[in-house]
Design a protein that fits this description.
With 354 residues, this protein is mainly alpha-helical. It is 64% helix and 7% strand.
């Protein structure tokens, strides 16, 4: 695998690991914190943590990240992502978790990858070939097997429907965020965290709900910083290199991480279904990581700004390493291996990966 895909693949897997690790701890916190205040603290932890990182970097006079900043129409995409994925999705999920068996909820959370892929393919015409479909199916089947290993009963109820709705909202969030993934990921997630967290705090207070004691609040803030802040920064950065469908397919490994942590924390012993799921999960990851996609395609004229260095799409002999800049792309027709990154977002689905 070339470096251009290897790094975003690692970023997507790291994002999945952090978010997957946060899920069982969030479930534990629900016994001490009401759903809306918990959603608020998780996202405030994300925004405040990243704010501290930015302030600390300036105080230490750290080198600039060289990322393009959010501007103009970017704010419409960010606003849509904040409302769908930062406000309504987590509140809906946490309310649903309180009345949904853990196994059922874990199973249904895999619908986020499906929702993201469907929206990416149908609405935004992102290329999704047979290999990607098989990969997503493998990861989903493995996650279902892992979910069944908990021993809880499957059932459809209003809580389960709420989880599906939350996943659909995150699917919308993922695709909206993809449109600004070329901009500074730290800024995007900071805005989402502070905006969504502040809205949820106000909503909780309006509904007469109280904030938890300092120990529980501190744990929620820390969990939000790691599982929602750093995780989402890595996810957004991966989106720019892999596209929404492929990044979400890798992100679907999050339930797998959660199950592993449950084995350690709750002293659960892996059973037969876990051992069956492991090779299926590995096959899905190998299919995704080993995908090769190349066909003759045309790039229409485009003006945009993002961090880049001289490559196939940026013939800039005067550039000194990676840097952010507004630039234009002329009409180009060529053939080379690619994924639905920020320069290949409108390939038709009949050119699927081989």
């Amino acid at each position: 695998m070339d470096r251009a895909r290897f790094i975003p693949t690692l970023q997507a897997l790291a994002a999945a690991a952090l978010f997957g690790a946060s899920a069982p701890f969030a479930k534990l916190l629900l016994s001490q914190v009401q759903p809306i205040p918990l959603a608020a603290l998780l996202y405030l932890g994300s925004g405040l943590g990243l704010t501290l990182i930015k302030v600390g970097s300036k105080a230490l006079k750290a080198p600039s990240s060289g990322e393009a900043t959010i501007s103009g129409s970017d704010w419409l995409w960010v606003f849509g992502a904040v409302v769908s994925g930062g406000v309504f999705a987590p509140i809906l999920l946490l309310f649903s978790l309180s009345s949904t068996p853990a196994a059922t909820a874990s199973l249904l959370l895999n619908f986020e990858a499906v929702a993201t892929t469907m929206i990416a393919a149908v609405v935004f015409r992102e290329a999704v070939g047979r290999r990607i479909g098989v990969s997503i199916a493998c990861v989903t089947v493995a996650s279902i097997l892992l979910t069944r290993s908990t021993g809880s009963q499957w059932g459809i109820a209003w809580g389960a429907l709420g989880v599906l709705a939350a996943c659909s909202l995150w699917g919308i969030d993922n695709n909206l965020t993809r449109h600004v993934s070329g901009k500074n990921a730290l800024d995007i997630v900071q805005v989402k965290g502070l905006g969504a967290g502040s809205f949820s705090i106000i909503l909780a207070l309006m509904l007469g709900q109280t904030l938890p004691a300092l120990p529980s609040a501190s744990l929620a803030l820390l969990l939000g910083f790691l599982g929602y802040g750093l995780s989402t920064v890595l996810f957004v950065t991966a989106l720019r290199g892999l596209g929404a469908a492929r990044t979400s397919a890798l992100y679907a490994a999050a339930p797998f991480v959660g199950v592993i942590i449950a084995f350690v924390i709750f002293q659960q012993i892996p059973d037969v279904t876990f051992l069956m799921a492991l090779p299926v999960m590995i096959v899905g990851a190998v299919l995704l990581v080993g995908e090769r996609h190349a066909h003759s395609h045309i790039h229409l004229p485009e003006d945009h700004a993002h961090r880049y260095e001289p490559d196939t799409h940026h013939a800039d002999p005067e550039a000194q390493g990676a840097h952010p800049a507004a630039h234009s792309h002329a009409v180009t027709e060529h053939t080379h291996p690619h994924v639905p990154d920020i320069h290949h977002r409108h390939d038709h689905s009949d050119h699927g990966g081989r």
